[in-house]
Amino acid sequence: MAPVTQNLFRFFRGGAVENESPEHAAAGRVNRRSSGLNEFSKSISGREGLCILDLGSTSATNISRLTGMGHKVCTEDLLEAAHDPLLLVPEPDGKKAIDVVRFLRDSLAYQPQMFDAVLCWDVPDYLPESLVKPVVERLCTLMKPGGILLAFFHTRDAGPDAPHYRYHMTGNDMLQLQTSARGSTPVFRLQRVFNNRHIENLFREFASLKFFLARDNVREVIVVR
Fold first, then answer.
1. CB under 8 Å, gap of 24 or more: what pairs does 127-134 form?
2. pLDDT digit string (tens) for 67-87?
3. What is the residue extent of each domain of the chain?
4. Confidence class of residue 19 from pLDDT cuts 50, 70 and 90?
5. Contact 99, 24 (CB under 8 A)
6. Cα torsion through 78, 80, 85, 87, rounded to 10
7. 4 or 117, which is more confident?
8. d(CA 53, CA 15)
9. What pLDDT does residue 8 have?
10. In CATH, what class is 10-224?
11. Confidence at 24, pLDDT banded by 50, 70, 90
């Protein structure tokens, strides 16, 4: 396995988890029910020792909840890694493009079929275009057959200024959404909108997909490897 240089990932197997400050933990959070999360929770309940990958910003809430269920958790902030300026390389026309090979060398560097479940959240909506397909293909190789993945996709009605959130699991079907911004400036901007056919094509190597249309212009998808 290639060494990880830029993007460090961490495993958690229970025990103490560094808590967020009370001010940071409460900032900009709203509660939201999630049918997709409910399906995900049912899949991992009653099965100790699963290996779960969380691709969002590190959440002490998620880590505590999942390790409390007896699972191992690995966190990797894929969007932060994808926007590393060191990944940009010059092209012949003078423009800069992301070095996809380097990104995949430094990110998602795990053994094949390592994960039973993946919390993908809305990462594909915010990833640079050149990374979307390679990331999903890599996730396919990292998941065990029958493994489950939860992803969120914005609908066209969400608009180009849809806020980016950090997702905190507070119940089997309940999330706290925390606005991801520095002051009034969004950390990440919505890059594209996938329709159902686009999503099906994106996950065409997987066994099955199940869609849930939420009320807040988000399409939730459960994908089975």
1. 127/78, 127/79, 127/82, 127/191, 128/82, 128/83, 128/98, 128/191, 129/191, 129/192, 130/97, 130/98, 130/100, 131/82, 131/98, 131/100, 131/103, 132/202, 133/202, 134/100, 134/103, 134/104
2. 999 999 999 999 999 999 999
3. 10-224
4. very low
5. no
6. -10
7. 117
8. 18
9. 42
10. alpha beta
11. very low
**Which alpha helices (DSSP H) does the chain contain, by range?**
22-26, 35-44, 60-68, 78-82, 100-106, 123-126, 129-142, 196-202
Dist CA 173 CA 219 (whole Å): 15
Tokens 């849809």 correspond to 162
- The per-residue b/e assignment along 36-48, b for 16 or more CB within 10 angstroms, e otherwise, is bbbbbbebbeeee
Mean pLDDT of the region 194-205: 96
As given in the structure block, the two tokens for residue 52 are 């779960």
For 1-29, b/e burial (b = at least 16 CB within 10 A) is: eeeeeebebeebeeeebeebeeeeeeeeb
19: closest CA among 67, 72, 62, 80? 62
Contacts of 204 (CB under 8 A, 6+ apart): none
63, 75 Cβ separation under 8 angstroms: yes
Token code pair at residue 110: 């795990």
Beta bridge partners of 213: 219
> How crowded is residue 182: how many other Cβ atoms within 10 Å of its Cβ?
7
Q: What is the pTM of this model?
A: 0.87
Beta strands at 115-121 and 143-154: parallel, antiparallel or unpaired: parallel
